[in-house]
Write a structure and sequence with these properties.
Keywords: Aminotransferase, Lyase, Pyridoxal phosphate, Transferase
Protein name: Class V aminotransferase
Strand order of the largest sheet: 2-8-7-6-5-3-4
Pfam family, one: Aminotran_5
Number of domains: 2
Largest sheet: 7 strands, mixed
Distance between the termini: 44 Å
Strand content: 5-15%
Order of helices and strands: HHEHHEHEHEHEHEEEHHEEHEEEH
InterPro entries: Aminotrans_V_dom (IPR000192), PyrdxlP-dep_Trfase (IPR015424), PyrdxlP-dep_Trfase_major (IPR015421), PyrdxlP-dep_Trfase_small (IPR015422)
CATH class of the largest domain: Alpha Beta
Radius of gyration: 22 Å
CATH architecture of the largest domain: 3-Layer(aba) Sandwich
CATH superfamily of the largest domain: Type I PLP-dependent aspartate aminotransferase-like (Major domain)
Number of strands: 13
Shape: globular
Helix content: 40-55%
GO molecular function: lyase activity; transaminase activity
């Protein structure tokens, strides 16, 4: 761990990493949470695969990709996660995986309850509410206290389970897209099991920046993105189902393209972005050679802490994401306390300081500005953000 932390501060090393990315001239991007950049070599490989598939068309796809290459790619991904090869199904994104898991979970009866919280991603919340309407279920929604602590997050779920004994299924966001809060997944999943509640884990923002053990966390159902912190082309994600729990999820829309039991029948069926999937081995190779999630996460947290430590000292600015290292990652949100709507300040950051950020709302802590550093973020970028916050804070308090 000391070597990883030392590496996170090695600007010469990370300068060489930043040089792997082609950057368009324009605003400083502090909204790296939407999707990640591909390195130059990955983008070149992706273009090569596009050209190849375009030339050869269905001959290669029918003869090799459908029968062998897609399976080999899926197995490499499972090896990265150290899970059973039979537990992975490829999807377009985490949302596709999560919606299929929620919609096809077959352990619900009319009158059962579903649990969500104020931190869910919209497509996940929509899916839970849709299932509730379709099957005569009740939605229980909890709001996490602010500021959150490790203990308060666990206590919030414990209270919900005790007050609502008919909860059978819940969604849990590993990293919330709104504030970057990292939830204590393993403790909450264990608590849910003790109360007979199944968990569908939204890992969209976690993979590639948080070093976790999926099996140790006790998760049976999860959805992930590969185009955020892993660095794959857009339209790549996957579904995870513990093979012992496969029977709890029905085939998606009655999908029977493969003999049962097969986890791939649980994913939406259609033509995938084949060139993108053929690029994934290159992506995984680069991810592993860099040091994986541990090295990536240490660098991102280092950059995050540089600006957060300054922002916490400024009047009129509230940082919403805790500093407990168990509860934060690259994504952190703040707000100017004199404003309810943070969008005007997002525009000020862009127009006056050339900083591209994004406003987020929906959680109980209110409207906020999301800052997400990336692998090409420099110390100069962080200093520009600190300068902007100091000046805007002074103007707000004047």
């Amino acid at each position: 761990m000391p070597r990883i932390e030392e590496n996170a501060r090695d600007e010469n090393f990370w300068h060489t990493i930043a040089q792997r990315y082609d950057l368009e001239h324009g605003p400083i991007n502090l909204e790296n949470g939407y999707f990640g950049r591909m390195t130059r070599s990955v983008a070149q490989d992706y273009q090569h695969q596009i050209d190849f598939i375009n030339r050869i068309n269905s001959v290669h796809v029918r003869q090799q990709f459908d029968d062998t290459q897609s399976t080999e790619i899926r197995n490499r991904l499972a090896d990265l996660l150290e899970v059973d090869h039979a537990s992975i199904a490829l999807t377009r994104c985490a949302s596709d995986a999560l919606q299929s898991l929620i919609g096809n979970y077959n352990g619900l009866q009319p009158g059962d309850q579903l649990l969500i919280c104020d931190l869910e991603y919209p497509s996940v919340e929509y899916a839970m509410r849709w299932v509730a309407r379709q099957r005569g279920l009740e939605i229980i929604e909890i709001t996490h206290s602010h500021p959150a602590t490790h203990e308060s997050l666990i206590a919030g779920y414990r209270e919900a389970f005790e007050r609502h004994p008919r909860i059978k299924l819940m969604t849990l966001t590993h990293v919330t897209h709104r504030t970057g809060l990292v939830l204590p997944v393993q403790a909450i999943v264990q608590l849910a099991k003790e109360h007979g509640v199944d968990v569908v884990l939204d890992g969209a923002h976690a993979l590639g920046q948080i070093d976790f053990d999926l099996q140790a966390m006790g998760v049976a159902f999860a959805g992930y993105n590969l185009h955020k912190w892993i660095g794959a082309p857009l339209t790549l994600g996957f579904m995870y189902i513990d093979p012992k729990r496969l029977s709890s999820i029905d085939p998606d829309m009655g999908n029977q393209r493969l003999p049962e039991p097969d986890v791939r029948n649980r994913a939406p069926y259609g033509t995938v972005n084949i060139p993108a999937w053929l690029t994934l081995p290159k992506v995984l190779q680069e991810h592993i050679e860099l040091g994986g999630s541990a090295v990536k996460g240490a660098r991102l947290n280092y950059l995050r802490n540089l600006w957060v430590s300054e922002a916490r000292q400024l009047p009129g600015i509230e940082v919403l994401t805790p500093d407990d290292p168990r509860l934060h990652c690259a994504i952190t949100s703040f707000r100017f306390t004199h404003l309810d709507d943070q969008q005007p300040m997002v525009e000020r950051l862009l127009n006056d300081y050339n900083l591209f950020t994004v406003a987020r709302s929906g959680s109980a802590c209110g409207s906020c500005i999301r800052i997400t550093v990336g692998f090409a973020t420099t110390l100069e970028d962080i200093n520009q953000l600190i300068k902007a916050l100091r000046e805007l804070s002074c103007n707000a308090s004047a």
